[in-house]
Amino acid sequence: MIVNAPEALDMPLIRRLGASCDLTQADEEALARLIGSPAREFSPRHDLAREGDTGRHVRLVGDGWACRYKSTLEGKRQIVGFILPGDFCDLSAYLLGHMDHSISAITRIRVALITPESLDALITGHPSLANAFWRLELINASMQREWLLSLGQRTAYERIGHLLIELFSRLRAAGLVDGNSCAFPLTQNDLADATGLSPVHVNRTLRELRLQGLVELDRKRLRLPDLATLAEASGFLPNYLHADPKERHVGVYA
User: What is the average pLDDT score of the chain?
Assistant: First the structure.
């Protein structure tokens, strides 16, 4: 369904970029104009794009959650990334020409439909935004390396704790947390597909984290009462998210 894009569509992206890049007022106004494009809504668990697709638009999530996934020939799914408000769905396809993975909505989701011509004009007129978008893609690559480390070397406890902090940190950068809590629509099956664990193992691990007072999940909201302790227990180091380009030290989440 095509709808008029609400003004709120631009906010998560501007907050994310502004947290790590110096945006001018002209940059922000240009982004707002760009994202004032028609938007499309997708139902939960509906595919926005499939592997091999070539699209006429670059899609930016304004509201809702989605995931990137790959499937085996037998139909087994591996989630390779989560897409949150303020994230581009297919900026890589804009550069490479086609999708090399699929994208599925987790919740009801609204995406701005941006033409490649509009994006080209923005990048040409605002080189600083071109650098900011390139930075987003580099951070995505950094997150992929961290996910690979989790799948190969971290315990189930560490994988789950690490992923929860990562998602919370990304939402916080977009201005979408309330204190130490945030929306959390993921199911245990989603977490299993993202961490390479069985749903039963995910359930057992979440129960352990709850009993330790490190995680609270209720009515699709996540609360992390003690981020520093959870980060230490999960081996979480925030440097790979590159939230602050001026920060050079590497330490646990504070």
Answer: 88
